[in-house]
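Structure ticket #2291
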Amino acid sequence: MIRRFDCILAATKAAVLKKNEKVGKLATKDTFLSREAGYSFYNTSPFDFEKLLNDPDGIEANFRSYLNGFSENVRNIIEKFKFDNHIATLAEKNCCILSFRSLPRLMPIYIPIKYPT
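Resolution: structure written out below.
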């Protein structure tokens, strides 16, 4: 699921990061970033799956940072799936990087959830 979100947002990632810098802590930040992403969700983390793989030693902390960069609606989904527990288990067993190496090969299913203009 997270990998699919990553693929869907890839085309607008740079624009969202730039817009996030501009809007700062505005109360309407969510609206601006969703429009920039073109979907009802976005991610403001500088990480994507490719960048996470470039730092195997920091993957646990970086992945947590990546997940925290999602908009609140996606973070709510992540919390329901208890990703935090899964990350801790993978890290304990030194399996985080192995799990991530298999994900980029997955072909995402694109489900357009466009933000209304």
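Closing remark: Residues 30 and 101 are 31 Å apart (CA to CA).
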